[in-house]
Amino acid sequence: MNSANYCAMLRNELKPAICKKRRGMLSKKVLLHHDNARPHTAAATVEVVQKLGFELLQHPPYSPDLAPSDYHIFGPLKEVLRGCRFASDEEVKEAVHTWLREQPKSFFSAGIQELVEQYNKCIVLQGDYVEK
Questions:
Q1: Which of the two ends of the chain, N or C, has the fewest CB atoms closer than 10 A to its terminal CB?
Q2: 112 and 66 share a domain?
Q3: How many domains does the chain have?
């Protein structure tokens, strides 16, 4: 993934998905939580995020307690996919999309709330490490 691909995904996939699934939400604030990977911090990405009207949450340079890979979705997804064999990337994508569609809304809202709580703890501790 490079900045150009990421910017295209923001414009062509994320924004239309928000418009479709959350009508009226783009008139409200859309927050993105990125890590500090180059595609996320590149000037082109920052410019696209601003043009789309999204707001970026600042991410400390190294914060394992807030790492997107620790977000609640990846553990259960890895459990479901463990041991599966896929013949193509498309099969993997379909398996992930199917699993995501099967999750109740409460699964996502609870995970987002947990991330918000972790982020708030990090702010209170002025960027110091936060135990889960």
A1: C
A2: yes
A3: 2
Q: What is the DSSP letter of 58?
A: P
- Tell me which residue range forms the domain holding 18: 1-59
Whether residue 41 sits in one domain with residue 79: no
d(CA 40, CA 67): 14
Which residues touch 67 (CB under 8 Å, ≥6 apart)?
Answer: 35
pLDDT digits (tens, 9 = 90+) for 7-59: 898 899 888 888 787 776 555 677 777 777 788 888 898 899 889 888 887 76
Q: How many helices and strands, by DSSP H and E, does the chain display?
A: 7, 2
pLDDT digits (tens, 9 = 90+) for 65-83: 555 556 678 889 999 999 9
Q: Are residues 18 and 50 in the same domain?
A: yes
Residue where a domain terminates, one of 32, 59, 86: 59
Q: Is the pTM of this model over 0.70?
A: no
Question: Residue written as tokens 């709330």?
Answer: 113
* Residues near 11 by beta carbon (within 8 Å), at least 6 away in sequence: 48, 52
* Beta carbons of 37 and 93 less than 8 angstroms apart: no
